[in-house]
Fold these 4 entries.
Entry 1:
Amino acid sequence: MTQIENAWGAAPGAGYEALAATFRPIFAEIARQAPKRDLERHLPHDAIRSLKEAGFGAVRLPTAHGGRGASLPQFFNLLIELSAADSNVTQALRAHFGYAEDILNSKDAERRSLWFGRIAGGETAGSAWSEIGAAATLDRFSTNVAEKDGRLLLNGAKYYTTGSLFADWIDVGASDANGEGIAVAVRRDAEGVEVVDDWDGFGQTLTASGTTTFRNVAVEPEDIVVDDERFKYSSAFYQIVHLATLAGIGRAITTDVAKAVAERRRTYTHAAASRSSEDPQVLQVVGRIRAAAYAASAITLQAASSLERAYEAHFIDDPEAEEKANAIAELEAAQAQTVVSDLILEASTLLFDALGASATKKPAGLDRHWRNARTLASHNPRIYKHRIIGDFAVNGTPPPYQWRIGASAG
């Protein structure tokens, strides 16, 4: 069935259904295994391998370079569908898609050619940027690249290295010998790289968002770029990946609760009908959940359109227009974040009102929706977003594009 026939609204772009048809059988298999993976904590190596083999990692690349040429709204719509299957898989690939987006925006022809070939060949990138502990918000990275005996060597440790365990490459934030910020790409299987699955959060448990260490890892000059040269709408891009993931969780909740209500035989003496599937109060809860998932998807795709405008503005050689498009994309992402998070967090709790106490049993796997949504909604804290949005509305203050997290300088 098409997206319209499923009542999720029109898909973005005339070619979307043909694009999605390639991946929907893989999504269906990923969804079939998702509850068991979560319950038994089996990392989704097979799921990610299937997507890589099908070219999912290259979906944004131009067709002339081995990709699918998907627009950003089409790309995010695909992420919503994937997230409805398993939100862990989407988040595990988030860093890769951000890296691919940076390559698409790069004005370095040699870098584009190098990475187009790698990505079209099925290779993916993970992420290693955050440093925990005493790392200060404004200090240089303690992870660094230095020259020794004529070689460039990377040393340091990172946390929240989401997806790196499944990737072929790792995108590392570091400092060079002068203390300048750089981005370094290294092979995950390179000598001196160690990726540990020690992520202990209660949600998104299969994303391998743990620790990665680098000990004298050899770095090639062509795999180093200056951090400030990376794509300007990256903060909004990464946030909208989270929103697409939340919207997909909303669809997964809708599927699971509708199925459970349809199959439920037990009822209460004071219920409004002899079957839950005929009880108007229960149906009202299910309808409210589905409406929340619909709205979350629509809002996410509207925000994705602002990213498409920012992407296109990058190539028109008008810095002022590009700056404006980036600011609007950041604001639209912030406005979407505050609403989508609320919608899906509420839906992940409401689902239990449509069912009995047996729905809380672990084998049912319904708790994973709240755990995953709550974990995702904790990224890039939304409590700051309302202030940023209000400051723009009242004072015209542009939003911050890039920010760091760490120990306070005070």
Note: DSSP finds ten helices and eight strands in the chain.
Entry 2:
Amino acid sequence: MLPQKLQRKLEERKQNMSLRTLPMYKQLVDFSSNDYLGFSKNALIFNATHKYLVANNILQNGATGSRLLSGNHNLYGELEDKLSVFHQSKAAIVYNSGYDANIGFFSCVPQRGDLVFYDEFIHASIRDGIAMSNAKGYKFKHNNIADLENLVERHSATIKDNKAAVYVVTESVFSMDGDSPNLKEMGLFCKKHKLFFVVDEAHAVGVFGDYGEGLVQEHNLVDLVFARIITFGKAIGCHGAAILGSTDLKTFLINFSRSFIYTTALAPHSVATILQSYYFLDSKDGKMQQQLLQNAVQFFKNEVDQHGLKEHFIPSDSAIQCCLLPGNANIKAVALELQENGFNVKAILSPTVPKGQERLRFCLHAYNKPKEIEKVTVLLRKLIDK
């Protein structure tokens, strides 16, 4: 038996139709995974990783310890050098996951007396990291620079009197909406007021930029950003994450970031997979996959428009397209019918998103065929009408 308080919380979830359960794997048309470029199933990357490890006599299953003890194998240096060059950063530091990177950064970089201003729809891992820090966090309205300006003005005395560092945090592509802020305007605002601009690029890397570098580089904003968080579990198709920034920031994180210090490092095979995925991304074949993804996104948006569904969708040019259909019970029923017809489309329920903003989240991929996209949008129209 669980303690009564825990049992009550589970019962509340059941009553609200928001109880989470682990899904069974089914062979459905993929409109739900983060594997935007199809790298997770790419045989060329898989074989290149194996050949690389064998050629370099890296026949090792585990890292054996944290990076500060025995786990800092040579592959880390090669990967972090590659990331620095590819992403035009002074330095890169690899973490075991995006969650580890965000709690590791936000729990240690903002200090007591500092302020963190974050978009109200920021990822849970960033919120958790801020909660673990000694700084105070305040949210501003989604993608609303005017509200951010009001926050800065409201706390101007505290900033001046305490000489507080102020961190402004956003995502370049929001995971539950697929939309983007005006990064240039926000970056210039931060520069003007001497604020530290932090951008999570988890859902932009591999999708935007000439070779998938992300939106910060696509818009030539590298010099306006204090730190970028990138992850490898989305378009890169494997696992892990990295923080991009100055060499001093990297040194600070090595010394004070607890989720980096107190964990076993990634195994050599994991690091080699990231490395080979980046070599593939930075090639003509990688560019081709990126173009196939952009074609799929545009075709999906055209089909949404053609079938009169545009009013239900959040405007987005990313691989994430969201259809708002309020109510947990309602959205679960529609998602279930889509799944029963062979399409893996997930319902995003409250409290993951605000009540009344429940949605279907369509994730598009380089391997989604036009016929699949046409069929799922036609079916969605019928289900909404019903």
Note: The chain has a mean pLDDT of 96.
Entry 3:
Amino acid sequence: MIKRPAAGKRLFILDTNVLMHDPTALFRFDEHDIYLPMVVLEELDRGKKGLSEVSRNVRQVSRFLDEMLLIAEDSDAISNGIPLPSVNNGDMPAATGRLFFQTTQMQRDLPKELPSHQGDNAILSVAIALQQTITDHTIILVSKDINLRIKATVLGICAEDYYNDKVLDDVDLLYRGSSELTADFWDDLNRLESWTADGQTFYQVEGDVVKDWYPNQLIFSPGEDHNIEAVVRSVTENSSDIQLINDYRKDNHAVWGITARNREQNFALNLLMDPEVDFVTLLGQAGTGKTLLTLAAALTQTIEHKRYCEIVMTRVTVPVGEDIGFLPGTEEEKMTPWMGALMDNLEVLNKTEGGEWGRQATNDLLQRWIKIRSLNFMRGRTFLNRFIIIDEAQNLTSKQMKTLITRAGPGTKVVCLGNIAQIDTPYLSETTSGLTYVVDHFKYWQHSGHITLLRGERSRLADYASEHL
């Protein structure tokens, strides 16, 4: 029998997958209390072995629990609840919530259709027993498992998803990286100055509209009289410096033979070719040109400009269908089947004259500059003067994304590509993806840029399929 929480508090029963997803979930419920059924501890024990991200999370949860149990002096302290420290921006204020463990066998009041020996059903039986025992406040089951939440709701148990890892309430609120100026933008400015430096045109604008701008945001005015496409270089409280961008839609500004076909692609090439922008994120549906533009910019800056010593490309290996099993060969040979997008785009970029021999010679040259690496071997590495491309980044968690980006050393540029509408990783959604996480957190940094590509440029067949299927 646990001590009843104070009036107004809620008791959250945590499912195993919540702790596997976020080990710090124990500290994310503020003043409310947490209850861990014994079956959750058993499932954590079974999942602690291995080198996967989930196994590491389980081991971290076990360490957290072990540290907190040191506070409890005897069994009475455990039955009365162990104080939980709240985590807020790295600060550890006075504990208000408590952690309770299941210490007694509870009556299993479940329908006979639900076998009690299954882990999910055992959690449901604990929730029902707590509802019958503690009647003065709400018992809430927190789980990432949709089917468990459905069964809980059917049985009259309040069930919720784990929302603390959500970056945004709605994916439509995600930063797009570009903004269209209003028709009366120039008339509403308090002050406007212009100058040129190193062949580039700059403007300093002053007005209320700049408060909503971010560094390296792309702004444009589609009107014929004041047609402008610029990038925000700096933002203060009421003024901003903007720079007119290069027009990569013209053949004389082609990047490795590739020209932009729309405004968003032109914005993307400006970010990719800018040496002052160390981190770039490109979002867009299939066929918008994310990989092609990135590879063209990488090859130009690595081979022609000698800005980087090599190109490193990686992606998470999550299959769309059934897993094909073991792949023989070296690390790069194992990753090759996952890099179909790289090979397809290299064929487009490899337009060398001279027949089959000339194309093969150019392809061999490109392969020497491009290295394919697995995510499994990234921890502990440091990449110096590399152009790193992270493909299919929507399948990465926020922690995996942090692990990859922190590998960057001096002179390295990191580009993340993805489509948050095509997430294949379990328990990740558009609002919890690592790609969404970095887009939202890097928008304030002056050396990062983001753009959402809107138009597909693959083919009329692909465009029609995207719109109608």
Note: Residues 53-69 form the longest helix (17 residues).
Entry 4:
Amino acid sequence: MLNKASYFLQISTGADTASAGPTEETVSFFSLITSGGTGGIIIMAMLFILAIIAVYLFFERFGAIKRANKLDPNFMNNLKDHVANGKMEAAQALCESTDTPVARLLQKGVSRIGKSMGDISASIENQGKIEVQRLERGLPYLATISGGAPMIGFLGTVIGMVLAFKEMANAGGQVDVSLLAEGIYTAMTTTVGGLFVGIMAYFGYNYLTTRVESVVYKMEVSATEFLDLLHEPL
């Protein structure tokens, strides 16, 4: 009876051992960053700072462009009425009370009424360039981050690979494959971080550029309507 119990105990212990199997170690993203040495930590810190700057630029420009894209539907009709009735002071006051690129553009045109059409058109065009520059402020930095972040991440990968191969050369014929693999995937972490920041900045830049083009289109349409109004006999 005792022998049977010992036999079943051995079977049970063997089954438990087999079911346990090899244990897998999970590596956190933070440990990947810190295990890359000083160079990897510096690279990831740079990418983190660039990510913060990209997010700030996106939301700051998004809010500014959204405010610039708002225009009262009755603004042009009221402005046309004031100009047609010769009420230039009222037209100026209307433009000043409306804080949009279109209003500032037309205010410049209203201030030039009485001069030649070429002078009015040139002043509106110059003001339009100023407004576009205001709208695009910060976008070149976002474009630079979209292109520079992947390159910085790739630099970290190259540095990590160099260090990994250096360790392999120092080890001679006894290369620890696990140590080499750890160095490689640690180095690849910087590429993942750089691509993430770059893609985020790239899509943000293109989205904001599209929104700026929408505002520019409204400015062009409003300027054309204003110039057409001046060509009509008052």
Note: Confidence is low (pLDDT under 50) at residues 7-24.
